[in-house]
Design goal:
Blueprint lengths: L1 E7 L4 E7 L7 E4 L2 E4 L3 E11 L12 E6 L11 E5 L2
Parallel strand pairs: 5-7
Antiparallel strand pairs: 1-2, 2-3, 3-4, 5-6
Length: 86
């Protein structure tokens, strides 16, 4: 079970949640609530983006991450960058 924090800049709050990465089912554990299936939105993850000098990223997604649909604006492109370096 891995722990994550979601920072909502619009509402200025932080939500802590857990995901069991070993589970076949995509499910988020938020307090006493389990969110799964059609209530999740798939977000592409782009790994190993170099910090510092601006460069073009490899536009091939390496994996997907799942967040509750109500947290994600469905009218915009959403993605996650994993940054390396500093």
């Amino acid at each position: 079970m891995n722990e994550y924090k979601y920072l909502n800049l619009k509402n200025k709050n932080i939500l802590e949640f857990k995901i069991d990465d070993n589970s076949i089912e995509k499910e988020i554990y938020l307090n006493e609530e389990n969110i799964s299936g059609k209530n999740l939105r798939e977000i592409p993850v782009f790994n190993e983006i170099a910090a510092g000098n601006p460069i073009e990223i490899n536009d091939e997604k390496q994996e997907n991450f799942y967040l509750p649909k109500e947290w994600v604006d469905r009218n915009n492109d959403n993605f996650i960058l994993q940054i390396k370096g500093g």
